[in-house]
Amino acid sequence: MDDTRILYNDTCPVCRFEIGAYRRQADGLPLRFDPLTEAHHYGLTPDEAARRLHVLQDGRLLSGLDAFRAIWASLPRTRWLARLTGLPVIRPVLALLYDRIAAPALYRAHLRRQRRLA
Q1: The Cα angle at residue 110 between residues 29 and 43, in degrees rounded to 5
Q2: What is the DSSP secondary structure assignment for residue 36, as one 8-state letter?
Q3: Residue 106: predicted pLDDT
Q4: Phi, psi at 18, each rounded to 5°
Q5: First to last CA, the chain
Q6: Three-state SS for 16?
Q7: Average pLDDT over residues 59-64
């Protein structure tokens, strides 16, 4: 298995919490966790990267639910979640919720944090 690179918003408290849980499970696994400053390795700008979770796996750039599913499939404790979220009825609903609600809300919070820092 090639390394799976995970690009996440390291300035986001929710994202850091989630990635922290994955890191604790990933000991010895070929997972690499990259902050937004590494977005260029994914062919993205930091702003594009901040809009959603991205994973680079086997030369493919995955984002959103597909990125989460790739991470979950790589971790022993969450493989069941990757399978469950791939079911035909569940997958489109979760993808829609992430794309329309979760990702935009997290991105708006990111923009607010950036404005406060400026």
Answers
A1: 55
A2: G
A3: 96
A4: -65, -50
A5: 41
A6: helix
A7: 96
Please compute, for residue 78, the number of CA atoms within 13 A of its CA located in the half-sphere on the CB side. 17
Q: Which residue has the tokens 């609903």?
A: 93
Amino acid at 46: P
Domain layout of the chain by residue ranges: 4-117
Cα–Cα dist 106/14, whole Å: 8
What confidence tens digit (pLDDT) does each residue in 7-26 have?
Answer: 999 999 999 999 999 999 99
CB 58 within 8 A of CB 73: no
For residues 49 and 36, the answer to whether their CB atoms sit within 8 Å is: yes
Of 15, 45, 51, 58, the residue nearest 33 (C-alpha)? 15
The 3 state secondary structure assigned to 45-101 is CHHHHHCCCEEEECCEEEECHHHHHHHHHHCHHHHHHHHHCCCCCHHHHHHHHHHHH
Q: Please count the other Cβ atoms lying within 10 Å of the Cβ belonging to residue 10.
A: 15
Query: Per the structure block, which two tokens stand in for 114?
Result: 């950036």
